[in-house]
Here is the input.
Amino acid sequence: MTRDLLRDLYATATAALLVVAAALVGTAIERDHGTLHVGWPPLYSNWGPHVGPGTPAALVVAIGVVAYGPRVAARLPWRALLGAAWGTAMAWTWSLALIDGWRRGIADRLTTKYEYLQVIDRFQDIPTTLRDFTGHILLHSPDHWPPHVAGHPPAATVTFVLLDRVGLGGGGWAGAFCITVGASACVAVLVAVRALADEALARRAAPFLVMAPAAVWMGTSADGYFAAVAAWTIAFLALAVTGHRPRLTGFASGLLFGLTCYLSYGLTLFALIAGAVLLLGPRRTRPLPYALAGVAVVPVVFTLAGFNWWEAYRLLVERYYQGAGGIRPYGYWVWANLACTVLIVGPATVAGLRRTGAALLETPRRLTARSSPDAPLRGHTPDRHGGSVRVGPALRRRLLPWADMPGASAELRLAVLVAAAFAALLIADLSGMSKAETERIWLPFAMWLLASCAFLPRPRTWLAAQATLALLLNHLLLTGW
Here is the structure.
């Protein structure tokens, strides 16, 4: 067994211990104090072993991806791979959701007292409702919004209102929409990884993005829809900074980022991931004017309609502490949230993140060792005598970002992208505004962590571990989302 593989196993064992500790400590806190407000810590779920109509399909999809996923991902033409990834992700998500049956698994998920479909009738006049939106956020306000409506900017609710207006009303259509759109998030990540790193790494990541344990919550949670919008924001930006129709893709990225910020307040942290994309792209500034023009569209529309994003966020913070957020202990959730993350990304991603960290730590040392005071600057035009203009290491560091220096690899660029997503997740964790329920709230960040699985050898073994975890979670627990 290689040293790297041993380190991977140590990392996954440590993550497993974190989950066990969160379960044991959380159970004790909930039993003695009742302050966690979750049924099976650290997840918002309850113990309830069961099978359902989706069980056979989920097993078939899992076996198929484990057995053939890496080979198919390596050989399919690129566009066919993207279509296959989207279709397989939908099959995996549908089958997991249907383990709970049609009603509980899909049709009723977005119709509970906490959810968006409860207020469709209150949006008969959308501009009027938006002007009065902030007046119903606080618990003591008249006809206060349900938790998920109050906890998000109104673009989330307006999405389901518009679906209802075009004849796709009710929980079944809303669930189908979230599954269909949410499954496309894996395609967006593949597009970005190919543009910023290389196609080989994207192909290696594809089976892990398709068959993630996160699909247990991607199913009919609106956060799956949010994850896809945020993912396509980054994908279009990655295309823009690498020269793929920068005006169009830059504008599309900005437009979707504006929408992302009006779907979830916390997803403004995707600006950090966008910053990493700008760092990695060779054409950083060219698409920026178009991206900024796109960013302005959604905020301008909602502001002109009468919705004040900043005021709504201020009131949301107050509302958060009026409810369970003011009771749930920060000292537990600040680390138990990470245990939730382990469960949604799986053991393979834990090992991938370990390798991501190793790549980030080792590359600067390798670059320094390879650099010499008279090494040629990569890409510099030779002088008229046939030689190269030579610069010292200090000037080299000023002229080139370290991710673009000689010796930098596709693996390093992928590691930077994954690290930015992990940093955004940690900031969300430290904020204290996501105490519990992060198995769905952090789905947008989790999709980018899954890309780290491209670093792993023996993909079938790791894929089997991912599938086993997802199947156990969905068959043993009755999840709240």
Summary: The beta strands are 45-47, 477-479. The two ends are 40 Å apart (CA to CA).
